[in-house]
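Q: I'm a student working through a structural biology exercise. My instructor gave each of us a protein and asked us to get a predicted structure, then write a short paragraph describing it. Mine is Thioesterase. I'm not confident about reading structure output yet, so if you can add a plain explanation after the tokens, that would really help. Here is the sequence I was given:
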Amino acid sequence: MPLTPLLTPDDLNRFLDTDFPEVHADGRIFTVEAVGPGFATMRFEPLQRHLRPGATVSGPSLFTLADVTAYVALIAHIGPVALAVTTSFTINFLRKPPLGPLLCTCHILKLGKRLAVLDAAISGMGSGELVAHATGTYSIPPK
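A: Happy to help. First, here is the predicted structure for Thioesterase. I'll explain a few features afterward.
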């Protein structure tokens, strides 16, 4: 059965603004771009502080993008549950990310009552080339 989002990209961006303002401590670098049945997509605008020597986006920045996008995909489908938390997360860095905006699309693989499993793919906006792949599990608090 297809998953139906409960929240729009505007709803999700407002939720991040109000419940997680620290995600925008350096300005708006994460933006929810799209939400659909079983998925969400976010845009990441890396700043100089997100770069490593050799002009590459850092691994911790890519990890954060994947984790935030997975969280957004989850709450888009269960509602604004601030206490849903990451219980495990694995990321594979596939190639050097291009300088510039990155997109992360996250799909919900399983949505249960207490756990959700998600799959995230990060790519460069211009090239569309996959630069990292991640999977994560999130704990959903009881109602």
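A: Here are two points you could use in your paragraph. The chain has two helices and eight strands. The helical segments are 9-19, 59-78. It's a good idea to check both against the output above yourself.
Q: Great, thank you!
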